[in-house]
Amino acid sequence: MATQLSGVAPPPLCRNAQPNGPNPSALGADSSPRSTVNSTIQAHRRKFVDEGKLRKISGRLFSDSIPRRSTRLAGETGANTNTSSTTVAGNGTSHSSKYLGGAKLSSVACRSVTVRKGQSWANENCDEGTRHDVFDDSRSNITAMTSSSSSSGITRSLEQEGAIMPVGGVFMNSSRILGGASEILGLLRILGEGYRLSCMYRCQDALDVYLKLPHKHYNTGWVLSQVGKAYFELVDYLEAARAFSLARRACPHGLEGMDVYSTVLYHLKEDMKLSYLAQELVSTDRLAPQSWCAMGNCYSLQKDHETALKNFQRAVQLNSRFAYAHTLCGHEYVALEDYENGIKSYQSALRIDARHYNSWYGLGMVYLRQEKLEFSEHHFRMAFQINPRSSVIMSYLGTALHALKRSEDALEMMERAILADKKNPLPMYQKANILVSMERFGEALEVLEELKEYAPRESSVYALMGKIYKRRNMHEKAMLHFGLALDLKPSATDVATIKAAIEKLHVPDEIEDNL
Question: For the segment 81-133, what is each residue's pLDDT rounded down to a tens digit?
């Protein structure tokens, strides 16, 4: 045996060897080549153990050399390091833990049982190796402060120096966190209040609330779009276009409110801007209903109602729950005098959104043209209940009431419409019409003289004044105002009406009514 093992390192002593002599079976096993390999592995293992202990000691030396935030904390940390037995708290978290995240999870797994002297080096060094690989000791001190809630000394230290809390891997002062949370909640409160008022169509109140936002939050795409919608509901198209333009500049690829922006440009007759907007939206997203609503408004402004209808139907195909696209389809059907399909489109929009007042208004207009006055008054009143601040809805509701021979109610509604929006000429004109029907010509002329200041180039105003002068047998003034109305280039229907009134200028009203 000595001859066979002369060139091999002697194997380690076996603790279970008998004192009287070696076990023959054990010696036979040790004399095999596998014994040689095992002895070599064990030799390397002993060397690895020494390196691990050296790394552990060096880590402690380096960690102790870093200045502590508190000498009291340094003493407690040293005491925890030198203890022979480290136990796990009742909730599964060690009080000597100095780390967060995945390092904490691995250490808890290693410390799930009590670590004692004489235990394998792997369990002893599990948390130390992970600790120094993931975090430095200065950061681990801060984490130990926040995780040791049961230590009264650490609690007093936190109260004296200010609590430190981990947020997304970054340690911040608790006062700063509370201040930031309070600021965010205040910002969300303002945004929510403004949006709530907009949904209630209290548009001026919503604008006042949005003005409370800081400058950097006000000049964002979403907020400016909401401001543009509010001005649109207030029939202030110039301010609405300005707000939407700023929203496009702040968020060039945003689609929020662009369908309303296209309608604003439609009312302002800005055909070039509307065409450019439609092309930009289609190039941005061809599958968005807002893009095709803008394209439809572009063709509708050019009086190409059939092509406009196809574009609005395309928007409905892309999103059947987009109520405004159904309403725009209804407007085009009415322009094409297809009232049956127009009513179906408006009703489809109301099935999606019962508070979409534009569809109630559209149905009221259809029934007013069909002279179904009770239906018209009902639908206009429904729209008025949803949006009680719209002067346009008040004006047409007053018109329906006047057609139903309820002149006093109609006159009261027109007064409310004038107070709601003094810049809107429609209720003033309708009020003058109602006064003429009640034969209160002097009051009607006063209203029309005031209206000329708001709409100096409106031919219908001069035509109605000519009619009043004719009823009062003031033929020269009547002829003057009829001529002014023709000079302002009214529509073909109005031209025919004005010329007929000029031909019958000297015919008494009683005979004219019989004719």
Answer: 444 444 433 444 444 443 334 444 444 334 433 333 344 433 444 344 444 44
In the chain, DSSP finds a helix count (H) and a strand count (E) of 29, 2
Q: Which amino acid is at 397?
A: L
Give pTM, 2 decimals.
0.65
pLDDT digits (tens, 9 = 90+) for 142-168: 444 444 444 444 444 444 444 565 655
Look up residue 379 and give its two tokens.
Answer: 């639908």
- Whole-angstrom CA distances from 217 to 204, 241, 254, 285 are 19, 20, 16, 26
Q: Is the four-CA dihedral 171, 176, 179, 183 of positive or negative sign? A: negative
Distance CA 332, CA 312 (A): 9
- Using CA atoms, how far apart are residues 377 and 91, in angstroms rounded to an integer? 71
| 264 token code pair | 């604003």
**Rounded CA separation 147/150 (Å):** 9
Give the DSSP H/E element, type plus range, for residue 209: helix 203-210
DSSP structure class, residue 389:
T
DSSP 39-94: HHHHHHHHHHHHHHHHHHHHHHHHHHHSPPS-HHHHHHHHHHHH-S-B---TTS--
CA distance 243 to 227: 6
Per the CB < 8 A criterion, the answer to whether 171 and 99 are in contact is: no
* Coil vs helix vs strand at 412: helix
Instruction: Tell me the C-alpha distance between 468 and 442, whole Å.
Output: 9
The dihedrals phi and psi of 164, each to the nearest 5 degrees, come to: -115, 130
Q: How many CB atoms lie within 10 A of CB 261?
A: 29
Query: Crossing angle, helix 407-420 and helix 425-437, to 10 degrees?
Result: 160
Residue of 342, 383, 378, 367 whose CA lies nearest to 233: 383
Q: Which two tokens stand for residue 497?
A: 């009406």
Residue among 107, 63, 106, 108 nearest 82 (CA): 63
Of 313, 364, 320, give the one whose Cα is nearest residue 343: 364
Amino acid at position 513, single letter: D
DSSP string covering 185-201? HHHHHHHHHHHHHHHTT
Burial classification of residue 182, based on how many CB atoms lie within 10 Å of its CB (0-12 exposed, 13-18 middle, 19 or more buried):
exposed
Say if residue 98 is exposed, middle or buried (CB neighbours under 10 Å; 0-12, 13-18, 19+): buried
The pLDDT assigned to 205 comes to 95
With CA atoms as reference, report the closest residue to 209 among 187, 183, 238, 177: 187
**DSSP, res 508:** -
Q: Using CA atoms, how far apart are residues 503 and 497, in angstroms rounded to an integer?
A: 10
In the numeric block, which tokens belong to residue 147? 């995780």
